[in-house]
Each structure stands twice: as structure tokens, then as C-alpha cells.
Amino acid sequence: MIKPLTAAISSLLLFSVMGSCAHAQDAQGAAPANASSVDKNKKDADAAKKEKVTNLDQVIVTGVRTPKAVDEIPGAITVVGKAEIQHTLLVTDDATAVLARAVPGYAESSQAMSNTGETLRGRIPLRLLDGVPQGSPLREGTRNGTFTDMGIVGRVEVINGPSASEGIGAAGGIINYISKVPTKEGNETTVTMRYSTQGPRDSGGWKTGVTFTRKEDSYDLLLSGSHIDRGVTYDGNGRRIGLNTSGSLADSLSDNIFLKAGYNFGEGNDQRVQASYSHFKIDGKGDYYQVLGCRGPTDDPPCAVPRTNTSEKGHIYGSKDAFNDFEQYAVEYTHNKLFGGALDINVYQANQAMRYLPELTDDKQDPLIAPLGTLWDQSEIRAKKKGIRTSWTRPDLFLTGLELHVGVDYVKDQADQRLALTNRLWVPPMKYDSTAPYAQLSYDIGPVTLSGGMRHEDDTLKVDSYTTTYYRNRVFVQGGSLNYKENLKNIGGIWRITDEWSAFASYSEGFTLPNIGIPLRNINVPGQSVDRISDLQPIIFKNDEFGFNWRGDFASFGATHYISKSPFGASLAIDPHSNDFILSRAPVRIEGTELTGDWQINPTWKITGLYSHIKGATSFWATDPAGRFPAGDLKKPMGVLDINPDKLAGSVTWNFLANADATLGFTSLFGRHISGSDTRPYDGATFSYDEQTHGYTLWDLGVNYDMGRSGKLSFGVENLFDKQYILTWSQLAGYQNYWSGRGRVTSVTYSITF
């Protein structure tokens, strides 16, 4: 840890000395002035900067790590603010539901502890909590969307599309959950209580949360804790929904503790030290077990009338409850006037564990332990990481409007996966070290901002020798290491045409690993060595994007079109024998269009809307490692495991009283039929893919009534019309995945602040 830290600080100081020699005037690390202030005097420009930085609806820190105006970043960025988060929490406490409602390219919520199928622009996003990565790129367990209580989140910043700015893993983009900050001088305590039900007694759920804040000139403090007790869930037909095989929110308990303290010091309080601690754990209660459904006459075994998975009272003997356990520590130091720039150093450590429900599947059998077909087992992923993120931002370098942003990131990541009931190794211990220096320049030229930069990934993967399971023929795999060295570039520009219109274009590259645990555990041929497995090669994403935005006094509208390519990409498929996920390494091309808009009709009425269209294609076969044939053409459409159908969402808010409002919203996923086929020239093998899904529309309602000093009373309804539907990704035949979506859920929330 000492060596990367020393290198990071040395690099930052070197750049800072260069910058201070070239431009000795003292400047703060605020966002550059907007286009309308260019022709004004310096005093007015500085005032505009300060105003822009303090308006959180117009700035973003993700990817730039210092407040920067949204209209100076060339790309599609979504900031999910306090109002959107609070409205979503009225109808559901799902951590990812707010993204499905507010972010155009985000897929439907899985409504589970697992976030299988929850992609951003057709790829897995990198999720952060206050800049700290959640989960592990070594073994993506589709659990990284449920890692905190949304009650402590003040805003969510989303960079859409592949990006290397925050490190590896941002294939679909970056989603940074930013915790709340104290805003009121003195002490403030907020107590929140929520009750939800679907009618049946066992569907009831309770939440209790307390947040205490204190703010003074030199320090601030935030302490928060919550407890949620969830019942089982029912679909629109009043039938219990089956527990999700990869982890369910239903029939669970969750606890969250979040602590954050900051101390300001130095001349003008230009320096700050902040420490935070977060611990979130959700446990299944184990009161129910899943009863499998049947898709119809073509299922095995067949049935005359389709029926979805359901849950019955009981417990599988000897099994353990599913859980998510996320714990992280972080210490951050900032200096806003270091050699004319702003320094930020963030040191963190995160420990994560995820356990899945028991399964009686072929790939978990072992005749040395129990007769074939009788062995229940459940897997558990353990991951831990520690790292340091650094940045130094110097405005007005050499020229007015020229900004330099440099830093070094270092992370040490470890992960493995075991079969918990029999203590068998399923995925061997993997260690990943990454050192990534980066530099970025942006230049404001009147109404135009140009930016470009590069991040260099110098990474090493080490895997111990191991033996696969009985199902994979107990083959010995020689351990080894792989080195990844990549230069990841970005360039873009944004033109603020008028005070209302702007247009942008950008090119960016992203870097991630291909869920390494899956190909490692699926090896079944002797004589394999880790350093010779082609599926472990990285995925490089190249993203072209352009769009425009219009922002009027009472309305706004934006449109974005993007094309994302990866010559040696990755997509998910289902093994027809084990029904488990398998990784397909072949070229990938994804193209999409996103529209967003809102209209404040008058002080009483407001309308918002968004639309997303995504399509993707890959090859039926990858390049042959022996060099006999190249990868196929892009003739295989990418289905719901990667890309959701078109989405249309909107809401209307009515402030019917000075202290009361109501929001009616809807989310509609369209039906889709995709198909493709190809013949491999080398051996005449034929391939085909056909997928059809049916769409649905859900409505939700939230009503708030502010009683002043007596508190705030809120009423929420999810799935207002009690629609019966099958989740889109459950419409694709897979392992025990035939689930209905939630029916109507009614909730009452009371909060009081004193």
C-alpha cells in the first residue's frame, strides 16, 4: 500500500509544481464559468462559478472528482435528485427501482436481492458508494445493486456509457450513490417509519430509521441507522411469488449503519478530513421455500396450464439463509488551495460476502459426499478490496479556461466462491492489483468546452492452482498470472449554442474483466493453465456518442444516440444442461437512443418523461483459439439477459395544496421479438436464436402531506392497478426463473424532523 500511495502523492506534487510555476495566481478548484459569463468581468465570473458549484442539480463529481457543471461535460449524464429518490421510497424500498424509473438506459428492476438482468445500456455498470466500488469485477455475483439503505442517499450520479474514469468495471457506465450531507446549522434528528402491505398478513413489512446530523463551522456529523422487516410478496393474481434463486428481498430482514464525520481546517477552511463507515446486511428469514412453476406443455415436466414459481411455508433441512453483507471504511482528505489547485485523496477498504439459496442441481453433485441427485448445496462469494483514489485539479493552467485533472488510482482486489454447505472450492482465490495513472485536460473557449485525456491501466491477475468439481470432471488447473496493460482514451466537446441550446459529441473507452469466476469454474478439460485461457482476456469498449439538450425557463428536453463496440466482448447465455450462466466471448455492438424531458406547466403541475431504445448484436461463435476460423458476423441478437426492450416512463406531479403534493407515474416496457441465424463456414455448423417477450405497463402513486412541526405523512401505491405480469427477464427460459412481478403494494410513511 505504501508504494502506490507514495507514487500517487509524488505524481500529484510534480504536476502541481509544474502548474504553479506556469501560473502563480491563487485559484480554487471550482467549475469553470459558464458561457454566459465569459464576456463579463472577473468578479461576475467568480460569482457564477460559486453559484454553479453550490447548485447540486447542475454539477457532478463522478468521473471528475471535483464539482463540475453538467453543461461542460460532453456526454449523457443523469442526476437522480432528492425528489426522485423520495418519491420512489414512498412506493418501494428497492435500491434499484429509482434507477429503473429515472435513468433511460437502465433495465427493469429485478425486484430481488439479485440484480440479474439489471444492465445500463446493455452492459453491467460500475456501482459506487461515495466513490468506493461495490462488488468485485473478478466474480460478478449480480448482487451489487443492494448494498445500502436508500434512506442515506442524497443523490445518484449516473455517467451513461462505457467509461474508464473510475476504474475497471464500468462497461455500461458508472452509478455513484452519494450519501447525504448535513445542511442545517446545529443539531437535527429525523425519524422515519414505514408500513407496507399487500393485504395478506404475511405480506406486511416495517421500516424504522433514525438520522442525526450536526453541523458547525469547522465540523459536521451524520449518524444513521435503519431496520427493515419484509414479508413475502404476492402477484396481481394474489399468488405468492417464489423466492428468487439468487437471493430475494421478500421474507427478509435488513440493517444499515452509516456514519460520516468531517473536520474543516486551514486558512478559510480550505482543507478537510472526512471519515465514513457503512455496514449493510440483508438476511433471508428462511420461513419459506420455493415451489417451482411450469411454463406449459413444452416444459419438463410439462403442464396443461402455466403457473409461476411460488413459495410455501417451510425450510430445506440443513440449509442456510441467503444474505448480502457489505462493509466499508473510507478516509478522505481534500485541499482546495494546494499549488493553485484542488487535491483529493480517498483511502478505502471494503469487505463483501454474498450467499445464495440452496439448489439441487447437477453442477453441485458429488458421489463422494452423497448419492447423485440428492445433494443440496449453496454458493457463497467472498470479496475484499482496499485502494486509494487520488486527484488534483488545476484550473486556468497556462491559459484562462484551461483545466488539468491528474491522479493515480490503486486497488487490490481479492475474491473466491465456495459451496458453503460442503465447504468445496468452486471458484479459486483470485487476486487483482491495479495501478492506473491518468491525466485529463479541458478547455473553455467561449461557448465551447473541449476535453480529452488518457488513463493507463497496469494490472495483474493471479489465480491459485485448483481442482474443479465432480461435475467438471475434477480436472487440475495450473495457477498462474496475467498482465493487463491498456491505454484508455477519451475526447469530446460540448457547444453551448445559446443560453438554452447545447450539443455534444464524444468518444470514450472502457475496460473491464469478463466475470472471471465463470470460465474458471467451468473448465472440464485436463491440461489447462490460467495464463493460457483466452476467455480471461479483458474487454475493451469503444463508445461514440452525440446528442443535444434544450433547457428553457420552465421545460427541458434532451436526446442522445450512442454506438458501443467491443471486438472481443462478452455476453451471457444459459447452459442447456446445467441451466447456469455461461460466458460467450465474441464481438459485440450495441446501439441506442435516449430521450428525456420535463415541463413545469405552472407552479402547480409538472410533467416528466423518458424513452430508451437499445439493440445489440454479437456473433454465434468466437475466434477459434487454434486459429482455424475467425469470429462470426454480428448476426446473433442480444436478448433480455443483456438488453431490455424499449422503455417509456413518465410522471405528473400535482401540488394541490401549499403543503401537499401527489405524483402519478408509469413505466412501460414494450414487447419484442428478435431472431437470427448463421452458418459457420469452417464446419457447416448452423446456429439460430429466437426470443419473444411481452410488454407491460405499471403505474404508481405517491402522496405527501406536510404537517409542519408535527411531521410529514406520505401514502404510496406500487402497481396501482394490481397488474398481473411476468418480469421480462423471467420470460426467457432459464434455471428456476419463472417469476411474476409484484402486485399492488400499499404503504404509509411517517417522518418527523426536530
What does this protein structure show overall?
By secondary structure, the chain is mainly beta. Helix content is 7%, strand content 48%. The protein contains five helices and 39 strands. It has a 22-stranded antiparallel beta barrel. Strands 3-6-7-4-5 form a five-stranded mixed sheet. A three-stranded mixed sheet has the order 21-22-25, with no helix packed on it. It starts with a helix and ends with a strand.
Largest β-sheet summary: 22 strands, antiparallel, barrel
- Number of beta strands: 39
Q: Considering DSSP H and I runs of 4 or more, what fraction of the residues is helical?
A: under 10%
Structural class: mainly beta
Q: Quaternary arrangement of the chains shown? A: single chain
How far the N terminus sits from the C terminus, by CA atoms, comes to: 44 Å
Q: What overall geometry do the principal axes of the alpha carbons give?
A: globular
The poorly predicted ranges are: 1-54
Write down the overall mean pLDDT.
Answer: 87
Beta-strand fraction estimate: over 45%
Our count of helices gives 5
Integer-rounded radius of gyration: 26 Å
